[in-house]
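Annotated sample (chain length 248).
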Amino acid sequence: MVLIESRRVCAVFDPRTCDLVMVWRGGLDQRGKVHDFSQQTSRPRLADRDAVLLDRHDDMLLAETIRLDDDQPVFETTLGLAGTSDAWLWFEETGRTAARFDMTSGDDGSTCSWFESACHITSDTDWQWNLKRLPRTQSALQMRVTSAAHPKLIRNMRLLRETVAWTTPTGLPCPVRWRGYSLLADGSVALRFDLVPAAGAATRLVQRLSPRADGGIDSAFADPPRTGVRLHGEIAGSMSFPGSIDAP
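Output written by the structure step:
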């Protein structure tokens, strides 16, 4: 992920989807590494109750508290992933024995993925944060959670879904190809990527994020796409994010 930070507003661009996925008023708490498990990763620091200016994520609470006891050792649920580019499962858990997560595809009922949570804590009662990227599929996933340790506590289990950003004229996801970015002398950032539809030539795009005088950020395409490919259902255009609530 490429982080763009103005004086008051931060913006995150995802090179996997070539999309501006989150913009907020405030700052950034930089923590740890960026991996699937057991990492205190960076997070936004919000300035006020209206601080989130753009958020492409679809965040769904799956379970507030799960207790896997001897007489109730299994938790099961369905994860809907239609229209999703990527999805992440995040949760907190207690104990030094891992829970096992089995994912079953909605297409044929076969187990398409499984993982065990990472427990590197020092006590059976300590809480640990975990994050895992789910397998890509447009069908539903049946998830089954088990644990050899009892009781096993899991809380705040959430599904974080990223929507498909670029689509073809027929509404299908359009593949993208990330080409990097450039830091410009005026403080702007040029984000470079290609739209690669199945039919026709690739379209090269440059999206420029520029700091505003009030501390916000402007986003514009140097040459908007003319191929019929759309960004979130609309022809890609310019966006503006002011640095304060009462800014013009």
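Annotation: DSSP finds no helices and 20 strands in the chain.
Annotation: The chain has two domains: 2-56+165-241, 58-163.
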